[in-house]
Design goal:
With about 350 residues, this protein is of the alpha+beta class. The chain contains eight helices and 18 strands. The longest helix has 16 residues. The protein binds pyridoxal-5'-phosphate (PLP) and 2-OXO-4-methylpentanoic acid.
Length: about 350
């Protein structure tokens, strides 16, 4: 893919950038540039470019604004101690965007073009990649939107793929401490044949009211159960889940209606290396409640790109609660093993890291 570049004539000053990188929060500040490419049936993917970051001018009848034909990805670029910059399994994000694109009736963006686009933006805005202290990183958000101006309901004949980036600190305020969860019994995230496995805005739109309920009950995140039985644990609003048992096995909900997390699959491999077998299977909410009560479940954790690996504490629902499991030891060991690879502080036996700069 040929990419043209127009550099920003007003990049943020070094002083302001230092201020932002000292305390980036999550998703609040955006780099000096953005990547864009367009697709039409006749021309295929074309007009790939890096240009100054700024607002889009969209016709009010642009399809994405009405029918939510959209997919996105979330990944990070990490600075290593020697100053080099790396991403984590970017071809997995690219492959997942292809799968999401099929579900959303979008054209396929080739894996190599996706990786090239991310690399080009991160390289252009490399001064925005924070120092590794405090596990900061540059969060990268590729996304695809339906940009045909048309109110009919059919796949858009004009598609725009973009990449933006935002420096990131800890996703949860207060750093790594157990998150409390709210079990929603009213709302579900995905049904059979639905969009649960796709990373698309609609899934997040439908999670908001449940997340609001969670926040209203003093919880950090919401847990979704399966739509068919209302019994099996699926995932959180933005993270996959793991249940550590007293015999050392770890259970994680099987894929199908959940997002196939890249952290999730990496942890399955990492846990194996640490001597823990991971079972991917249905896991009921009763198993959770009873396992915590009996002590058979010793740890619960959640994982995702933004949140990394986070211990899970108390679970609350309408009329009851289950206490936090006793330990977070294995959770923190897995977390450390993962971030050590991502920040280049440990060997990368799986070949997960991809050098950008
Ligand atoms: N589940 C949902 C609903 C998510 O939004 C995310 C975050 O991307 C994940 C799981 C974890 O996926 P990954 O590890 O690829 O970031
Ligand atoms: C991610 O971890 O990348 C996510 O997408 C979670 C959330 C920010 C949507």
């Amino acid at each position: 893919m040929e990419i043209s570049t127009t550099s920003s004539s007003a990049p943020v000053s070094d002083e302001r950038l230092a201020e932002i990188l000292a305390n980036p929060g999550f998703g609040q500040f955006f780099t000096d540039h953005m990547f864009t490419a367009e697709w039409t049936p006749d021309a295929g993917w074309h007009a790939a470019r890096i240009e100054p970051y700024g607002p889009l001018a969209l016709d009010p009848a642009t399809a994405v604004l009405h029918y939510a034909q959209e997919t996105f990805e979330g990944m990070k670029a990490y600075r290593h101690d020697d100053g080099s910059i790396w991403s984590f399994r970017p071809e997995e994000n690219a492959a997942r965007m292809v799968r999401s694109s099929h579900r959303l009736a979008f054209p396929e963006l080739p894996v190599d073009d996706f990786v090239q686009a991310v690399d080009a933006l991160v390289a252009a805005d490399q001064r925005w990649v924070p120092d590794p202290a405090g596990e900061k990183s540059l969060y990268v958000r590729p996304f695809m939107i339906a940009t045909e101006v048309f109110l009919g309901v059919r796949p858009s004949q004009h598609v725009t793929f973009m990449v933006i980036a935002s420096p990131a600190g800890a996703y949860f305020k207060g750093g790594v401490k157990p998150v409390t969860l709210w079990l929603t019994e009213e709302y579900t995230r995905a049904g059979r044949g639905g969009m649960g496995a796709a990373k698309t805005g609609g899934n997040y739109a439908s999670s908001l009211v449940a997340q609001q309920e969670a926040t209203g009950h003093g919880c950090d995140q919401v847990v979704f159960l399966d739509a068919q039985h209302g019994r099996y644990v699926e995932e959180l609003g933005g993270m996959n889940m793991y249940f550590v048992h007293d015999d050392g096995t770890i259970v994680t909900p099987e894929t199908g209606t959940i997002l196939e997390g890249i952290t999730r699959s990496s942890i399955i491999e990492l846990a194996g290396k640490l001597g823990h077998q991971v079972e991917e299977r249905r896991f009921s909410i009763d198993e959770w409640r009873e396992g915590v009560a009996s002590g058979r479940i010793t740890e619960i954790f959640a994982c995702g790109t933004a949140a990394v690996v986070t211990p899970v504490g108390e679970l609350k629902w309408d009329g009851g609660s289950a206490p936090a499991p006793a330990s977070t030891d294995l959770t923190m060991r897995i977390r450390q093993a993962l971030v050590d690879i991502q920040y280049g502080r440990a060997e990368d036996p799986f070949g997960w890291m991809h050098r950008i700069v």
